[in-house]
Every structure is written in structure tokens, then in C-alpha cells.
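User: quick one, sequence for these C-alpha cells?
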């Protein structure tokens, strides 16, 4: 069997994200832990803000509602169409376009660029990770900042849960769903994980989706930042800026150009 090359793997990830638009808000729309943090940082930036991987607008629309001069990119046309419909209902005018975080282009510089909700991890290779960081640096204003978050790889979660099915109940106003998910390594050496997800209503499967992401450790990311030309950053444990002390915590990176 012929092995898939890196470009084919990335293209497959992009195609999968198009399918996620159908259920993204149902699965993740209720997540609010990061919204106030990113809104506050956007106000502090006092300039143009770019959200990378803005998806269906979970955070992006909150920035617009707060009067932030916000732009957005996402690799999924379907995600952006959902965002635009929601913006229209709210009377908002989004400045979003389909683009890849590795290669996006704007004729403007940003005071702040954000990548919420672990989306940077969808860069599956070191080359793509550095390419994305360099592209971001080129789009930052002289005193601009990059802020993003992703989890610290947790060996306990990996050993206990990877390769096993996990079930979660999701309730809406009038319906109840079951989400069945399973994560496993597709490339242990290069730290690449695939997550397969099935959404059921009662016993009927109504959606299937998957995506891939790469583990990145703290010291590994610091090396990536250096290679991309960044020289100053801080990393915290959560959205209240607590000290990072454990692999059980989320990493919140605040990076200066």
C-alpha cells in the first residue's frame, strides 16, 4: 500500500473540517472558559485583531459584538458560511475569509493575532508549525502580540484513554445526543493523533467526523518560537494566568513580536 505524503495528510484534515461545520456549535458552542480572556486581550491590543481558525464564530462574533476591529480566517468554507449566517442574524458585519494559517496574506498589520481552542495543533509537521509562526510574525505590528492556547500532553490521559471509546451526553433544549469519541496515535514517533467521533440521537448515527493534531510540549514550542524569530514570551496555566506547574494544565502563550 502506498503511504500518504504530508500534503495528502493535510488535505485530508482540511476535508474533514468541512464536515465538522454541521455539528460544531452543538459540540463546542457551549465552551465559554476562554471567551472573556480573549475579549479582554483584544481590548488591550487597541488595534486590529486577527483570529486564526475562527470557525463558526464562537469567539470571533463576541469580539465583533464588543466593537473590536476583528478579522478572521478559517480553512473551512462551511464553517465560515455558518459564521456569516449567525453574524447576519446579529446585525454584524464580519471581515472573514477562507485561508490557511500557514499561507494567509493581508495588506495590513495586526496589533493582536489569536489562535484559540488548540487550533495551532492542526499543524502536523515541524515545517508547517514554523511556517505558520513566521507568517504570523510577518503580519504583526511592531509591538504586536500572538496569543494562543493548547493542552500540555498528559501521559495519564494517554495511557488510560487512548484507543478506548469515550461517551458523552449532550443535551439541547429539546433533544439529547450521545457523542462517542476515540483518540489514538497514527504516528507515535511524530506525535500525531487522530480523533474519531460519532454523534447519535437515540440509537441512530446522525454524523461521523475525525481530525488529526500533533502533540507539542512546552520546551518544544519554545524552540519553534525561536526558530520563527520570536524572542519574548510567557506561558501560563489557565485563562487566569496562574503559573504553569503541571502537565495536567492548559498552556496559555502570550508572545511578543
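Assistant:
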Amino acid at each position: 500500500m502506498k503511504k500518504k505524503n504530508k500534503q495528502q495528510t493535510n488535505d485530508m484534515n482540511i476535508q474533514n473540517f468541512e464536515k465538522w461545520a454541521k455539528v460544531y456549535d452543538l459540540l463546542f458552542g457551549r465552551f465559554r472558559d476562554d471567551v472573556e480572556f480573549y475579549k479582554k486581550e483584544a481590548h488591550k491590543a487597541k488595534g486590529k485583531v486577527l483570529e486564526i481558525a475562527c470557525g463558526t464564530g464562537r469567539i470571533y462574533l463576541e469580539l465583533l459584538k464588543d466593537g473590536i476591529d476583528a478579522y478572521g480566517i478559517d480553512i473551512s468554507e462551511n464553517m465560515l458560511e455558518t459564521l456569516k449566517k449567525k453574524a447576519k442574524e446579529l446585525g454584524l458585519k464580519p471581515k472573514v475569509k477562507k485561508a490557511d494559517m500557514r499561507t494567509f496574506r493581508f495588506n495590513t498589520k495586526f496589533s493582536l493575532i489569536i489562535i484559540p481552542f488548540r487550533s495551532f495543533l492542526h499543524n502536523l509537521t515541524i515545517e508547517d508549525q514554523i511556517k505558520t509562526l513566521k507568517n504570523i510574525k510577518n503580519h504583526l505590528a511592531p509591538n504586536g502580540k500572538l496569543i494562543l492556547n493548547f493542552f500540555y500532553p498528559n501521559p495519564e490521559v494517554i495511557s488510560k484513554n487512548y484507543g478506548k471509546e469515550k461517551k458523552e451526553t449532550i443535551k439541547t433544549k429539546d433533544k439529547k445526543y450521545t457523542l462517542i469519541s476515540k483518540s489514538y496515535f497514527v504516528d507515535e514517533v511524530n506525535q500525531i493523533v487522530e480523533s474519531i467521533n460519532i454523534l447519535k440521537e437515540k440509537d441512530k448515527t446522525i454524523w461521523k467526523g475525525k481530525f488529526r493534531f500533533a502533540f507539542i510540549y512546552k520546551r518544544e514550542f519554545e524552540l519553534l518560537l525561536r526558530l520563527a524569530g520570536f524572542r519574548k514570551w510567557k506561558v501560563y496555566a489557565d485563562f487566569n494566568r496562574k503559573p504553569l506547574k503541571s502537565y495536567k494544565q492548559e498552556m496559555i502563550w502570550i508572545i511578543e513580536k
